[in-house]
Amino acid sequence: MTVDGTAQVAGRDAYKLVVKPKQSGSTVGAISIAVDHRTGMPLKFTLTPASGGAAVVDVGFTRVSFDKPSASTFDFTPPKGAKVTEDEAPEKGREHSGKPERGPKAEEDLGKGLDGLKMLGEGWNSVAVFDTGGEGGLPTGGTGGPAGDLGGFLGSLGDEVKGDFGTGTVFSTRLVNALITEDGKVYVGAVTKDALVKAADAGK
């Protein structure tokens, strides 16, 4: 992380902190965070792709104030005729944690949803791998019928690639790319097409 000068965000002076991937193969060019020079609070977040051009993500405050509100702001006068009750303090050990409760079934369902999900690589070059359990990849026009027509259309939106893993189709955006192989595996990550092919070869 480096400091890349200063900026004005929401009328306040801010330092620009920039993080760039050290490994090659990532589609992330840089992440810039503008932090308030007095409070250290993040005021703006910008993510630019390695391919250049406009930022993929660019969000920040347009107006911000750190003034402390007056205590009278929280004064409350019950309306005439209203009945006021006060709750007792919770028993020790039964305080609410503030976090949503998650039952065993919810955790079990979440675990099932992640079955088969694996991660390849590290850091910026991490690639998520999911096995759909089906073979043949995208349907092709040779299969006939609506499935073949749909597969032909989807295939026209991607690029066919080959490697030690076999054959597949890469669908690209400015940031996230996905590879669907002929044996039904899906590789997704903020990495280049070549990096996806290498990941598929390594995961063969």
Automatic annotation (TrEMBL):
Chain positions covered by the region annotation Disordered: 72-110
Superkingdom of origin organism: Bacteria
Annotated Gene3D superfamilies: Lipoprotein localisation LolA/LolB/LppX
Biased composition (Basic and acidic residues): 83-110
InterPro entries recorded: LolA/LolB/LppX (IPR029046), Sporulation_related (IPR052944)
Protein known as: DUF2092 domain-containing protein
Organism this protein belongs to: Streptomyces haneummycinicus
